Amino acid sequence: MQRDLVERAMAGEREAFSELVRLSIDRLYAIARLILRDEARAEDATQEALVAAWRDLSALRDPDRFEPWLHRLLVRTCYRDARRERRMRHGQVRELTFGASVERQTEPDSTYRLAARDELERGFRRLDTDERSILVLHFYLGYSIAELAETLVIPDGTAKSRLRRATQAMRSALEAEARTALSSGGTIA
């Protein structure tokens, strides 16, 4: 089904492309939000990636690879946005906010889950865009090392080492958050 939509969109059919957008926009936005840590910037990056997809659809060689191609466009857009943001800050420290939408849960351990999610959010804030990107692609989207390499246009070995470094950075960030919480009199859930 999706291959048919992609082929029709590649032939210039706007309705087919609109359907592809409808099927993928929520996931694209979630990925951008995880990478950029800002709702408005994530919306802009998603929009920019979709515009690029429509404009460059003829460059797609294999209609079956539409989704990874679209993810690659989005990640590149997020990288550009992060670089623009760094240039605009000119060294000023500015914390980006991330408004997580928490689903109401009726399970007895929902407090623990919320605390764990909050801890991950704080740890994620300490990572740079490259580290967040590779973690999102691997752990959120389930990309293999080969898929990471293809999406980021890097060798497999580089993808593997970047994933290892990003995972270590996340561990360090979580440990730093735990130390901060303990030194300020807080408790760790």
Please give a structural write-up.
It is built from eight helices and no strands. With 189 residues, it is mainly alpha-helical. It has two domains: 97 residues, Orthogonal Bundle (Rna Polymerase Sigma Factor, Chain: A), CATH 1.10.1740.10; 85 residues, Winged helix-like DNA-binding domain superfamily/Winged helix DNA-binding domain (Arc Repressor Mutant, subunit A), CATH 1.10.10.10. Helix 5 crosses helix 8 and helix 7 crosses helix 8. The longest helix is centred in the C-terminal third of the chain and has 28 residues. About 9% of the residues have low confidence.
- How does CATH name the architecture of the largest domain? Orthogonal Bundle
Q: What is the percentage of strand-forming residues?
A: under 5%
* Count of β-strands: 0
Q: Give the CATH level 1 class of the largest domain.
A: Mainly Alpha
Content-based structural category: mainly alpha
> How many structurally independent domains?
2
State the major sheet. none
Number of helices: 8
Rg calculated over all Cα atoms = 19 Å
Strand and helix order: HHHHHHHH
CATH topology type of the largest domain: Rna Polymerase Sigma Factor, Chain: A
User: What is the rounded distance between the termini?
Assistant: 45 Å
Low-confidence stretches: 92-108
- Oligomer designation: single chain
Mean pLDDT score, rounded? 82
In CATH terms, the superfamily of the largest domain is: RNA polymerase sigma factor, region 2, helix turn helix motif
Query: Per the principal axes of the C-alpha atoms, what is the gross shape?
Result: elongated
Helix-residue proportion: over 70%
